[in-house]
Specification:
By secondary structure, the chain is mostly beta strands. It is 5% helix and 37% strand. It has two helices and 34 strands. It has a five-stranded antiparallel β-sheet, with no helix packed on it. A hairpin with a 3-residue loop joins strand 25 and strand 26.
C-alpha cells in the first residue's frame, strides 16, 4: 500500500478523489492512498521492524511448556493447561532467586519459612459419601388400643355408628364454612408437608412431615393416632392414596418413592430414578389404577407400574422441576405445572404435550386442585392469587375467576375446593386459612389457624363444614 505522510492533526483518513489523489490498480489488487499522521506512521513502521530480524526472517515466538495430561494432578507431565509458562520463564525465576541469595534447584519449591505445612488427618469416608441411603428397613408402629374389633375388622372399616353416612357419594351434601377449631393432632416434630383424607369416606387422615415420618389418624371417635410409617431418611415431599385407599404412595427427599399397605403398614415396593420426587399421583381410573406419575426435580414426569416395579413412560418437556400433576377429563389426560412458569397438558401414556401454555405474566403454579365438576382446575400462583384453567380441550385460563386477598409468595401452599364446588380454601403465609365463593370470587372468611405459614389444607369429603389444616409448626388442626 502506498502511503502519503501527512503532518496534520486529523490522524488517519482516506484522501478522496476531490483531494486530487488518484486510486491505483495494481497487479496484486486495488490500492487506495490514505493520509496518516507522522506519529502513527512511525509507530506502525517500528512495530513492523520489531517482528523482522536482520536477515529478513520473522522473529521466533517464545515456546511454551506442554499443557500436560489432564488425568495427572501432580508431578511429571501434570496438567498445566492455559497456565503453562514460557520455557525461559522458569530460568528467569531461578536467576531472580539466585540474585536474592536463595538459589533454588530446578526441582525445588519455594517455601516461606514462617509457614509450616499442616499435617491433616484423612477425611473420613462418611463425609464424602454423597450417595443417598437406599434404606430397605421400613418399620411401622400401631398406636391404637386394639388392632381388631370384636368382629375382626381393622381401622379400614368405615364406621357406621355415626350420625352421618360416610358411604354416600362425596359432594351430594351442601357445604358451609367452618367457624371454630374442634381438635388438634400433635405428634410430628417438624413441618407438615401433606394432608390426605381417606378416599370417599374420609374416616382416616394421612399426614406426612419433614421429620421423615408418615402418620395415620382417626378422624372420628377418639381422634387418636393409629399408625406411624417409618422408612424414609429425609423429609417426605408428598403422599397419595390409591382410589380404593388400601395402599398409598410416599415421596421423599431421600430420592425414594414407596408404596405402603394402609392397613398393616408394610412397605410393598420401592421406586427411584436417582432424582428427588416433588409430587406423586396415582391414576384414579380403574383401568390404570396400578400406575402412578411422579414429578421429579430433573424436569421429568415418570410413570411407574406398581405391579412390575418398572418405569413405563417418561414425559420430558418441562424446563424446571415439576410442581403439580392433576388428572382431568375422566382421568384420560393430566395437567402438569413446573418452576419454568408453564402449564402443559398430556394424554396419559403419550409423552408429547397436547397443550403448552406459557405467558410472560405467568408465575410458577405450585399447587393444584380439580373442581368437583371436572371442568376446571384451580392453581395456586406465586403472585398471591389463585388462578383457574379449564380442564377441557382448550385448557384456557378463565380470566373472570381469580381469587385474591391472601399471601402465598415464597411458599407452596395448598389450595382445596369443597366437595360441592361452592367454596375455595387456601392457606396463607401469615397463618390464616382463607375461604372464597367459587362463583363470585369474593373472600368470605379468614381464620387464624397458626402462628407461622399454613401450607396444608384439605376439605373433608363427606362432612358439611369440616376441614383440616397444618403448617410449619407440626400441628394438624381440625375445624368445623
Amino acid at each position: 500500500m502506498e502511503v502519503a505522510v501527512y503532518h496534520g492533526k486529523d490522524g488517519i483518513g482516506p484522501i478522496t478523489q476531490s483531494n486530487g489523489v488518484k486510486r491505483k490498480n495494481l497487479p496484486t489488487g486495488h490500492a487506495e492512498e490514505i493520509a496518516i499522521s507522522h506519529s502513527t506512521f512511525k509507530a506502525q513502521k517500528q512495530r513492523w521492524n520489531d517482528t523482522i530480524e536482520p536477515n529478513g526472517s520473522k522473529a521466533q515466538k517464545p515456546k511454551r511448556q506442554k499443557k500436560g495430561d489432564p488425568s495427572i494432578v501432580d508431578g511429571e507431565g501434570a496438567y498445566r493447561g492455559p497456565w503453562a509458562r514460557y520455557e525461559d520463564q522458569d530460568q528467569a525465576y531461578e536467576d531472580e532467586a539466585a540474585v536474592a541469595g536463595e538459589e533454588l534447584a530446578s526441582d525445588e519449591e519455594y517455601v516461606e519459612e514462617a509457614i509450616v505445612p499442616a499435617t491433616m488427618a484423612a477425611i473420613p469416608a462418611a463425609s464424602t459419601d454423597y450417595a443417598d441411603s437406599l434404606t430397605t428397613s421400613e418399620t411401622t408402629e400401631f398406636h391404637g388400643e386394639e388392632e381388631f374389633d370384636y368382629q375382626g375388622r381393622t381401622y379400614m372399616h368405615v364406621p357406621q355408628d355415626l350420625d352421618i353416612d360416610l358411604r354416600k357419594e362425596p359432594g351430594t351434601q351442601k357445604n358451609y364454612l367452618p367457624k371454630k377449631q374442634i381438635h388438634t393432632w400433635k405428634s410430628h416434630t417438624k413441618a407438615i408437608t401433606s394432608l390426605r383424607f381417606f378416599p370417599s369416606s374420609g374416616h382416616l387422615l394421612l399426614s406426612s412431615s419433614a421429620d421423615s415420618k408418615i402418620k395415620l389418624w382417626d378422624a372420628y371417635h377418639a381422634r387418636s393416632l393409629l399408625r406411624t410409617f417409618s422408612g424414609h431418611t429425609k423429609s417426605v415431599t408428598d403422599t397419595c392414596f390409591s382410589s380404593s385407599g388400601t395402599t398409598f404412595l410416599s415421596a421423599s427427599y431421600d430420592r425414594q418413592m414407596k408404596l405402603w399397605d394402609t392397613e398393616y403398614g408394610k412397605c410393598i415396593s420401592r421406586f427411584t430414578t436417582g432424582k428427588i420426587p416433588h409430587v406423586i399421583r396415582f391414576n384414579p381410573s380403574a383401568a390404570h389404577g396400578h400406575e402412578f406419575l411422579a414429578g421429579m426435580s430433573d424436569k421429568k414426569i415418570v410413570q411407574f407400574d406398581t405391579r412390575s416395579g418398572e418405569m413405563t413412560q417418561e414425559y420430558d418437556h418441562h424446563l424446571g422441576p415439576v410442581n403439580t400433576i392433576t388428572f382431568v377429563d375422566q382421568d384420560r389426560r393430566f395437567i402438569t405445572t413446573s418452576d419454568d412458569k408453564s402449564l402443559r397438558a398430556w394424554e396419559f401414556n403419550i409423552p408429547v404435550p397436547i397443550k403448552f401454555i406459557a405467558e410472560p405474566y405467568m408465575y410458577s403454579l405450585v399447587r393444584a386442585a380439580a373442581h368437583p365438576s371436572g371442568k376446571y382446575v384451580a392453581f395456586q400462583s406465586g403472585d398471591n392469587q389463585i388462578v383457574v384453567y379449564a380442564a377441557t380441550d382448550r385448557f384456557r385460563q378463565n380470566r373472570k375467576k381469580s381469587f385474591r386477598g391472601h399471601n402465598n409468595a415464597g411458599y407452596a401452599i395448598d389450595v382445596s375446593v369443597s366437595p360441592d364446588g361452592q367454596f375455595v380454601m387456601s392457606g396463607d403465609s401469615g397463618g390464616y386459612v382463607c375461604f372464597w365463593d367459587w362463583k363470585t370470587c369474593k373472600m368470605y372468611d379468614k381464620l387464624v389457624a397458626a402462628e407461622g405459614p399454613v401450607v396444608c389444607t384439605q376439605w373433608h369429603p363427606q362432612e358439611t363444614s369440616k376441614v383440616a389444616t397444618a403448617g410449619l409448626d407440626g400441628a394438624i388442626k381440625y375445624w368445623d
